[in-house]
Each structure stands twice: as structure tokens, then as C-alpha cells.
């Protein structure tokens, strides 16, 4: 089967579109025929060398977000059968014609989505869910600021927060205002025209999907006792104490139960992902370049099978 493999860390030159042996599922695993895979910053960060820090061993088959159909099931698998349409996040090997998933990694694909759009959901939605609900404990009626609200993660966070009944303030560039407001944002701040920390005050929660200077300035928008959660930075306890708030970084983990709840929200029309670009697997280098630019609205996905 075809797959994207790296044998060393580096730039796009280390990406190999290669023939590899099709894996076989263990007792608690399923073999998924991958139709579409989502591209995420973690993919090119692994290529850059983060894979070593994550404990991955070279050679590495890249890709962690998939949508497809179950080809084979392990002996201990319950609740799924061959031919079922599923989606989820896996440890590695998603940029391939077939991939292995453990039972806790996947859920039934939302019935209202095709594979292309389904592949844009799992990682972003789970990251946002675990950030604003599991860590920050966002509740109905609270005010939340979401930076990078037009991105793959931020756009899903806006919708999840609205579904919870929160008041949502989103930041992005002005060209994305209509997009962010259509997602349900109650307020919009164009970061290219004004400093958001000067106009946003006393929020209960900040979800930062941008990092850098944006992350540092976001502390100023929180009320005392508020919570700043980020998907891209490593917050310091000292900074949080300085502003009288709490802070944490979200590390997205596979969670089939949460993914099933996300599927239900999708099918109820309360959550949708925006696919920005669809490319064939062989054009993975172009996909990485688009992702690294940081200017893509929504999700980049790789078309692999049918």
C-alpha cells in the first residue's frame, strides 16, 4: 500500500511517498481503509524532529486524523463490524491507504457528513472540547475569548462554546469576520486593526489557538479567577499567579465517548468543519507548506481512497 514515511527528520525533502506492507490488526484493533486524512501542525512538527521527543521511532508513518471504513476487525472488537464508516485520531500511520486504530481511537462517522468533511473534525473538535470543557470547565452563560477563531481548531471551539450556551468573542483578521460570525460568535475583534486586550475584558475563559505574543496578551482579558487554556504554548505558573488566574495547555487525547458526542452535535446541525483545501496524498508536501503558512481558513485534507 502507499503511505507517507520519513526515515529521518528534516524539511519536506524527507517526506517519502512509499510502498509499505499493509498492517494487520491485533485483537483490540481494527484495520481502517482510509478515505481521507486531516493535515495538522503536529504532522510537520513530527517531521521537523518533535517525533523524537514524543517517543516515536524512525522510520515513522505520518498522519493521525482519519476517516474511512473498517476493513478488518480484531477478535476482541465489539460494537463495530466490517464496512462501518468511522473517524478519529490515531497515534501514527494515517497518511496511508490503510491504518490501524484501537477501539478508543474511533467512533462512527457523523451520518450527515461525507468522508472529506468528516476528516476535518476529530482532532480540532477533541482539542477544543478537552480545552474548554475538561480543563476550563466552561459553562452556560460564561464569556469566552477564542483567539484564532477562523482556524481549524478555533472555528470548532466557537461552535462548541455556543452549543454550551456561552457568550463567544472571536479574534481573526478582518477578512474572516463574516465566517467567524456565521459560526456563532457574539463579538468579533479584527486583530489587524486593534489590540484585542484593549477591548475585551472580564472574560471567564480564554482559549488560545495562536500562541506567541497573542497568548501573552490574552492574560489581560481575564477576570480574577478566570482560566486561560492554550493548544500551542507552555504557560508558566508565575504568569498565571501574576494575573490571579489559572492556565493550562491542552494535550489532545483520543476519546471515543467524546467523539461520539461530537458526532451527535454534527448530526444535529450544531457543529461543522470547514474544509479549505483537498489534495491527493502524493501532494503531501504542498499540504504541509499550506499548513505551515498559518494562513489557511479551516482544514487541509488529503484524499487517499474511495
UniProtKB/TrEMBL annotation:
<dbReference type="GO" id="GO:0008270">
    <property type="term" value="F:zinc ion binding"/>
</dbReference>
<protein>
    <submittedName>
        <fullName>NADP-dependent oxidoreductase</fullName>
    </submittedName>
</protein>
<dbReference type="InterPro" id="IPR050700">
    <property type="entry name" value="YIM1/Zinc_Alcohol_DH_Fams"/>
</dbReference>
<dbReference type="InterPro" id="IPR013154">
    <property type="entry name" value="ADH-like_N"/>
</dbReference>
<keyword id="KW-0560">Oxidoreductase</keyword>
<dbReference type="InterPro" id="IPR020843">
    <property type="entry name" value="ER"/>
</dbReference>
<dbReference type="Pfam" id="PF08240">
    <property type="entry name" value="ADH_N"/>
</dbReference>
<dbReference type="InterPro" id="IPR011032">
    <property type="entry name" value="GroES-like_sf"/>
</dbReference>
<feature type="domain" description="Enoyl reductase (ER)">
    <location>
        <begin position="10"/>
        <end position="302"/>
    </location>
</feature>
<dbReference type="InterPro" id="IPR002364">
    <property type="entry name" value="Quin_OxRdtase/zeta-crystal_CS"/>
</dbReference>
<dbReference type="GO" id="GO:0016491">
    <property type="term" value="F:oxidoreductase activity"/>
</dbReference>
<dbReference type="InterPro" id="IPR036291">
    <property type="entry name" value="NAD(P)-bd_dom_sf"/>
</dbReference>
<dbReference type="Pfam" id="PF13602">
    <property type="entry name" value="ADH_zinc_N_2"/>
</dbReference>
Amino acid at each position: 500500500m502507499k503511505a507517507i514515511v520519513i526515515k529521518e527528520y528534516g524539511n519536506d525533502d524527507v517526506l517519502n511517498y512509499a510502498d509499505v506492507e499493509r498492517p494487520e490488526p491485533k485483537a483490540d484493533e481494527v484495520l481502517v481503509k482510509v478515505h481521507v486524512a486531516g493535515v495538522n501542525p503536529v504532522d510537520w512538527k513530527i517531521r521537523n524532529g518533535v517525533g523524537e521527543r514524543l517517543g516515536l521511532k524512525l522510520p515513522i508513518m505520518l498522519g493521525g486524523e482519519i476517516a474511512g471504513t473498517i476493513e478488518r476487525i480484531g477478535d476482541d472488537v465489539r460494537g463495530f463490524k466490517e464496512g462501518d464508516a468511522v473517524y478519529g485520531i490515531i497515534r501514527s500511520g494515517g497518511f496511508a491507504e490503510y491504518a490501524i486504530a484501537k477501539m478508543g481511537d474511533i467512533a462512527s462517522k457523523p451520518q450527515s457528513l461525507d468522508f472529506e468533511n468528516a476528516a476535518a473534525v476529530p482532532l480540532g473538535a477533541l482539542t477544543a472540547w478537552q480545552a474548554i470543557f475538561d480543563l476550563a470547565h466552561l459553562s452556560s452563560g460564561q464569556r469566552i475569548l477564542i483567539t484564532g477563531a477562523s482556524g481549524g481548531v478555533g472555528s470548532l471551539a466557537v461552535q462548541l462554546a455556543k452549543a454550551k450556551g456561552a457568550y463567544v468573542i472571536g479574534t481573526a483578521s478582518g477578512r474572516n469576520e463574516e465566517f467567524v460570525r456565521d459560526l456563532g460568535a457574539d463579538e468579533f475583534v479584527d486583530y489587524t486593526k486593534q489590540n484585542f486586550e484593549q477591548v475585551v475584558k472580564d472574560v471567564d475563559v480564554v482559549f488560545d489557538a495562536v500562541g506567541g505574543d497573542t497568548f501573552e496578551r490574552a492574560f489581560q482579558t481575564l477576570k480574577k479567577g478566570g482560566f486561560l487554556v492554550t493548544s500551542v504554548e507552555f504557560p508558566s505558573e508565575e504568569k498565571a499567579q501574576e494575573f490571579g488566574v489559572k492556565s493550562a495547555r491542552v494535550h489532545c487525547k483520543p476519546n471515543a465517548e467524546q467523539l461520539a458526542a461530537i458526532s451527535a452535535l454534527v448530526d444535529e446541525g450544531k457543529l461543522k468543519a470547514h474544509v479549505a483545501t483537498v489534495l491527493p496524498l502524493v501532494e503531501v508536501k504542498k499540504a504541509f507548506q499550506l499548513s505551515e503558512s498559518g494562513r489557511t481558513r479551516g482544514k487541509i485534507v488529503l484524499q487517499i481512497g474511495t
